[in-house]
């Protein structure tokens, strides 16, 4: 017996109904990107590993899917190297490419390669899949879509403000209640300096970013494991436990960071963003979260994360400013800021909350019954007219029993069935059955167009 086929873990198939729902999400996000002046680009699914490695920190590098070289990939590898079973070293020998981990690093590579043709500031968006060799779990997949919007070539904090507006607009359109969390990596760097652990900034941010998942005791334990002293942890605790509204928390951190140039700059930037947003019409709650760190090590300024309020799931959007990202590709001093919408997690949220409007599921509007060659030819002519009017129509491909054809219409939720027999051909009419009410009446092609347009 043949082995039943299966999918790789962490991947999914999507039915036509599911794809209608997903396309509703993509279309909503795409429309918002266009509304805010972003232009679409695409980059390849695979990049050179030299482009990807070292951009996501040690943890991120481990999650890169590497692509085995074609041809004789053992060429140039010694027996000694093979017998060493050093997976990392061997992979560097016979894997030169990898699947993209996100869309930001490929975008930075794109900017560097095409910088002579780009007019800055450059506002781009991408809606494409990415891959991560992560452990699959609820809300976390190995293949998933990201929907990114970035502005590069501008230092203005108005870009951050507009990104918050964009986030709010998208989730308002999708009817998902969210909290938009904001922090600044300069604040985090300042904290590391103030507590006397500036060289441990990455370890500190990775640990405190897990506060929601592992709790305060878990964060403290992880900090100790990373060699952070008890004295430094004691200085950090008031920041991790800060309460109050945005201005109250900002006042707490401003007092802690007084005299620290890096931290004070971060406080100034956050204050401008929050103050500007407060004068705008924002539906979502915008919250200063001093524990928000985001483990990726290329953020240098504002950082954002979006949480759904009515569903237990990880962040559904996030991003930040990455002033030095293009520097690794030989172009220094080019500032960028961007956000990414996690379409797959948004899809899961909308499924759980059943937020799709009725017309988001795309269905054929009318099915023509097939009685034979003569009737089918007449039906095809009328269907052409319907389609020219933007009406979705199809004909059952074989002349078969009426019950089977009606069953097909029911299973695909097609609201109307058009029946053309000999008498209809003679009279120039169509028998149209409403599949919901069961009512059937005769009408002309023009009347059918008017009915379906409504």
Secondary structure blueprint with pairings:
Blueprint: H1 16-35, E1 39-40, E2 46-48, H2 49-52, H3 57-62, E3 66-68, H4 79-84, H5 87-94, E4 95-99, H6 104-114, E5 122-131, E6 143-152, H7 158-174, E7 178-184, H8 185-194, H9 201-208, H10 211-225, H11 230-240, H12 246-256, H13 261-278, E8 285-288, E9 302-308, E10 317-321, E11 336-342, H14 343-353, E12 366-368, H15 373-388, E13 393-395, H16 402-411, E14 416-419, H17 422-427, E15 430-434, E16 440-443, H18 445-453
Parallel strand pairs: 1-5, 7-8, 12-13, 12-14
Antiparallel strand pairs: 2-4, 3-4, 5-6, 6-11, 7-9, 9-10, 10-11, 14-15, 15-16
Helix pairs in contact: 1-7, 1-14, 7-13, 8-13, 9-10, 12-13
Précis, in short:
The protein is built from 18 helices and 16 strands. It has 454 residues and is of the alpha+beta class. It has two domains: 16-353, BirA Bifunctional Protein, domain 2; 363-453, Rossmann fold.
Tell me what the structure shows.
- The chain is an alpha+beta fold.
- It has 2 domains: 338 residues, BirA Bifunctional Protein, domain 2, CATH 3.30.930; 91 residues, Rossmann fold, CATH 3.40.50.800.
- The chain has 18 helices and 16 strands.
- The strands form 3 sheets. The protein has an 8-stranded mixed β-sheet with strand order 1-5-6-11-10-9-7-8. A 5-stranded mixed β-sheet has the order 13-12-14-15-16.
- Strand 9 and strand 10 form a beta hairpin.
- The two termini are 53 Å apart.
